[in-house]
Structures are given as C-alpha cells and as structure tokens.
C-alpha cells in the first residue's frame, strides 16, 4: 500500500483546503505544506501526537519527449537514466538510514515509499521520505536576525559534531549550508541538526571521489567550483562548514560570486575586519581571536592548509568556546555583571550537550550556583562526579550546596 502517495493525492485532488479539511490515511494526517524547492516538496504530517516532515520527490518531468529529443538521446536511454537517478536516491536514503539514531545532531529518517508507474514510454517515479520534523531552518533564523552570538556558537558546535560523525562513517555531505541545517526546540536551548543528504556520498579510504557536484556555489570550496580532479571531499566539507559558521556568526557569507575565483587569504582577513554589517550587528565586538583564526583556517583557499579533518576543527571550536566561557565566568566574578554569567551559562551548556567531561558540568554547576539555582547546581555536580568519580572539586561543591539546601 502507498500510504503517503494516497495521502498527498487525496489532498491535491480535493484542493488542499487545510483550514476546512484534514486528509488522513493509515493514521497519518496531512497538516500543511511546509515548503517547496528544487529537490521537491515538504509536507507536515501527524500520527497521533507525533509530527513528521514528509518530503516528496518526483521525476515526472524528466521523461518529457521534447527534453529527450533536445539532448539527442533515445527514449530508452533516457528512461534508463531516470531509473539510475532513482537508484542513486535509494542509495542516499540508505546512507541516512544507516546514520539514524547515531547522532542527536543529524535529522532522523524513518522510512520511505517509492512508486513507479506507467509504461516503457511513459514512466513516473515518485519517492516519499518520512523524516524528523524540526521547528526552524537556520537560514531563516539568520535572515530574520533571531540568533545571538552565543546561540550561534551553540549551533556551530552541534553541526561540527554532526560532521565528525558523518566523516567517521566514511560519508561526506557535500552541501553544508544554513538552508540544510534545522533547529528544533525552544530557541533559548535549541538543537541544530544537519539535514538534506541529497548530495551525500560514501567515499573510499583515500577520501576522494569523482561524483559530479551540484551543491551551492557560495558555500562550495574553490577546488569544487573549479571541478578539480581528486577532490578531498572531507576538506571541502570543512570549507563549507567554515563558511556556514561565518554566516551564522555574522549574518553574511564571507565571499561573494565576484571574488570566489580570485580568492586569497588576505581577502578573507579584510572581510573579517571591515564587514560593516557585522559591526552594525555588534558581532565583531564579541568575536574572539581564536574564532577568527578558526574561520580563516577552515576556509583557506588551499585545501591542504585547512583542518586535516572534522574532528580537529571540532576540538579547536570546543577549545575556543571553553575559553570564552571561562573568561565570561571570570568577568562575572570580578564585576558581578549578569550578562557575563548568562554568556557563561550558554557556552558551558553547549559544551555539555556535545561531550561528557566532568569539567564542563562542574563549570555549568558553578554558574547555576551563582545564579541561585542550587538544585540545578547539585544536579550538574552529580553528573560531573558520575563522569569522574575522583573529581574532588565537584564533590566539595556538592557538599556545600547540599548543606545550604538543608
């Protein structure tokens, strides 16, 4: 049975008046259309109280006789190519299904339907993919200026960890950009998740592949745009990650179409120091030197001078954020500035979200203690002790909080 096919066809046939009617089949209720792009249409569906995103990809137009004649190939060859596209998509679904549940920072894919109809002269192929529904798209939050500096750092840490997980499984994304990053939950403590694996590929032990790339120009590494042979796709992903991080922090991409071809390191340094929009948003005043250095290295035009792998970039980012949190906490201790301790809390919380280290939880506990949230502080200290039973500082702090609570 084609449950998703029937669901969409029912809505389209009845005019999709969602305000008056809901369309249901096999327990799924079609709520609304979330959006439409080059790769397909995304719908919001619900089963009981759980929401999902349903992505519909159609290959109907690709078998149009006029298009086939324009390309000079015969119909059977075109139909075979269409079915090859279907097999490629199935492989991509296999990639994300392998990853589902292995990282909290990758959008989960649950299942899919495939429908092929018609004759050898008239083939229609549709695929419906049911995946995790998220509340926001990072590109929309950036455009609407809904991200503060410290929330931006939180999202960047999440996506860098997602990239570590991808690369460790021998998979490259090849189209990292804010439009392919979802944000779920309340924005004050939301999680960022990497999505859209339409360009993702499995790669061999030498980390290169020869697949044709159809990613996004402004986020692609120079060697990708120049169609250079033997591209190191892991380092190309790092470039895209660096560009995405820059835009998330500043609201602007670091490069424009007219300077990508003549890109050099000095041009990026100039952008870091002279981007007027950054100064208007007040971002550059808070961007630490360690973050500037990280962005410069991640987006270096020479792939060999970027981070060697995603894990190295992630660790450098974590080190930067930890240092910023420590400095914010020190600032609070000296000045009792409430903004400083709020910054420290967000930064330490971001670290606790992505790694299990006693020091991070102890620092977060210290923040909670100074904010008067003694129960939260005690919980953090207990987590630190669970990770490191020899953490005497967390034990002492827990004893202090427990005594005060009684």
- Strand neighbour order, sheet with most strands: 1-2-3-4-6-5
**Main β sheet profile:** 6 strands, antiparallel
Q: State the distance separating the first and last CA atoms.
A: 62 Å
Strand content: 15-25%
Q: Tell me the radius of gyration.
A: 24 Å
Portion of residues in helices? 40-55%
The rough form would be described as: globular
How many DSSP H or I helices?
16
Element pattern in H and E: HEEEEHHEEEHHEEEEHHHHHHHHHHH
Number of strands: 11
Mean pLDDT across all amino acids: 79
Spans where pLDDT lies below 50 across 5 or more residues:
14-23, 275-284
Q: Briefly note the structural class of the backbone.
A: alpha+beta
What does this structure look like?
With 406 residues, the chain is an alpha+beta fold. The protein is built from 16 helices and eleven strands. The chain has helices spanning 3-13, 65-70, 75-99, 138-143, 149-168, 222-225, 233-250, 257-260, 265-274, 276-281, 289-298, 310-335, 338-354, 358-370, 374-387, 392-405; strands at 23-25, 28-37, 40-47, 50-58, 109-119, 122-132, 136-137, 171-172, 181-184, 191-194, 201-202. It has a six-stranded antiparallel beta sheet with strand order 1-2-3-4-6-5, sandwiched between helices. A three-stranded antiparallel beta sheet has the order 7-9-10. A hairpin with a 2-residue loop joins β2 and β3. The longest helix is centred in the C-terminal third of the chain and has 26 residues, at 310-335. Mean pLDDT is 79; it is low at 14-23 and 275-284.
């Amino acid at each position: 049975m084609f449950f998703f096919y029937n669901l969409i066809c029912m809505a389209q046939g009845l005019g999709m008046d969602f305000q008056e009617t809901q369309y249901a089949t096999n327990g799924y209720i079609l709520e609304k259309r979330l959006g439409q792009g080059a790769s397909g249409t995304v719908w919001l569906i619900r089963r009981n109280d759980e929401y999902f995103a349903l992505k519909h990809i159609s290959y109907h137009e690709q078998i149009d006789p006029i298009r086939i004649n324009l390309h000079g190939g015969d119909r059977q060859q075109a139909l075979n190519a269409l079915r090859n596209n279907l097999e490629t998509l199935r492989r991509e679904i296999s990639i994300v299904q392998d990853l589902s549940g292995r990282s909290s920072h990758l959008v989960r894919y649950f299942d899919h339907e495939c429908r092929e109809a018609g004759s050898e002269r008239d083939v229609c192929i549709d695929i419906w993919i049911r995946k995790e529904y998220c509340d926001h798209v990072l590109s929309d939050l950036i455009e609407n200026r809904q991200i503060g500096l410290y929330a931006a750092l939180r999202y960047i840490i999440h996506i860098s960890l997602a990239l570590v997980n991808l690369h460790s499984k021998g998979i490259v994304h090849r189209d990292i950009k804010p439009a392919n990053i979802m944000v779920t939950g309340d924005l004050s403590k939301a999680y960022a998740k990497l999505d859209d694996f339409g360009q993702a590929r499995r790669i061999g032990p030498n980390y290169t592949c020869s697949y044709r790339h159809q990613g996004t120009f402004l986020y692609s590494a120079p060697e990708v745009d120049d169609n250079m042979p033997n591209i190191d796709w892991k380092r190309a992903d790092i470039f895209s990650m660096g560009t995405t991080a820059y835009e998330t922090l500043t609201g602007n991409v670091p490069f424009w179409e007219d300077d990508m071809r003549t890109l050099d390191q000095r041009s990026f340094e100039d952008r870091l120091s002279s981007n007027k929009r950054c100064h208007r948003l007040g971002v550059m005043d808070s961007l630490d030197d360690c973050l500037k250095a990280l962005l410069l290295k991640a987006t270096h035009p020479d792939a060999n001078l970027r981070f060697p792998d995603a894990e190295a970039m992630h660790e450098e980012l974590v080190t930067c954020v930890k240092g910023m949190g420590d400095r914010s906490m020190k600032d609070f201790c000296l000045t009792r500035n409430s903004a400083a301790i709020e910054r420290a809390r967000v930064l330490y919380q971001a670290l606790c979200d992505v790694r299990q280290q006693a020091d991070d939880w102890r620092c977060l506990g210290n923040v909670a203690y100074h904010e008067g949230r003694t129960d939260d502080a005690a919980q953090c200290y207990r987590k630190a002790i669970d990770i490191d039973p020899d953490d005497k500082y967390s034990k002492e702090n827990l004893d202090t909080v427990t005594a005060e609570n009684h």
